[in-house]
Amino acid sequence: MPGFFTGDELGGIKAVKYSPADSAGEWKAHTEILAEGTSAGRGRMVQKLAIYRSEGVVASGSLLVAARADGSATVLRTGEGVAPQVVREWKETRLKGGQRYVGLAVREEQVYSCTSNGALRLTKIGQEETTSESASALASLPMRLCDWRLSSDAHTFAYGGDEVELSLWNTEAAFAPRADSEMGTGAEGKKRKRTDQLLPGEIWRAKNVPNDNLNLRQPVHITALTYLQTSPSASHHHLVTGTQHGHVRRYDTRAARRPVADWKDVGKLGGVSAVEKGFAEHELFVADNGCNLFALDLRCGKVSYGYKGTRTPPVMRYMLTSVFDSGLSGAVSALAPAPALLASVAQDRFLRLHSTFPPPEQVGQQQEKKGEVLDKLYMKVIPTAVVWDQSADTPSTAESRGTDGEEEDDEEDVWDGMEDADSGDEDIRQTLPKTKKTRAAT
Question: Coil, strand or helix: which one is 425?
Answer without folding.
Answer: coil
